[in-house]
Amino acid sequence: MTGEYMEAMNSDMRAAIEALHNQLNTIRTGRASPKLLENVQVEVSSYGTTMPLNQLATISTPDPRLLVVTPWDKSTITDIERGITRAGLGLNPANDGQLIRVPIPALTGERRQELTRLVRKYGEDGKVRVRGVRREYNDLFRSLESDKDISKDELDRTLKLVQTSTDEHVAKVDGVVSAKEGEILEG
Known about the structure:
Elements: H1 2-24, H2 35-38, E1 41-44, E2 49-52, E3 57-63, E4 66-71, H3 77-86, E5 94-95, E6 100-103, H4 109-146, H5 152-186
Antiparallel strand pairs: 1-2, 3-4, 4-6, 5-6
C-alpha cells in the first residue's frame, strides 16, 4: 500500500527540483543562454495580450556573449525589445528592424555575489518545497496507521524511507545550487 504513495512522494520531490532548475535558468551567468529570455513576458500591442517571448520568436546564441532574437512576426519587434528591457535582467537589446541582438555583458564581482545569494535563496526555497512534501506524506502515513491501514512497524519503516528520500533530494538541491554558483563565479 505504501509503495504507490512513496512513488508519488518521490515524483513530487523531483518536481520541486525541476522547479528549482527552471528558476535557476532565468539567472544570468555571464554566458548567453536562450533559457535566459524564454519566459520574458512581452506585451504585444498588435495582439492585445501578453505572451512569453518563446511564443513570439526564435532565440539563438551565435557566440557565448550574444543572444539573437528573431521574431516570427516583424510587427512585434519593438514590443519584444521593450519586454526584454523591462524584464529586469540588466540587458540592453538592439533592434535592427529584422532581429534583436542582446549582448550579454560580463558580470561584475558585486553582481556575481548578488546572483550567488539569489541562487542560494532559490536553493533554500527548493529545500523547503522538498521538506513540505516530506511533511505531507509523513502526515498521510501517520493517518494510515491511525486508521489501522498499516501497522506501527510499517509506519516506522516508511517514515525512515521518507527521511532517506528527503535527504537524497535535499542533497540534489545542494548539487544544483553548487553547479549554478560555479557557473556564475567562473562566467
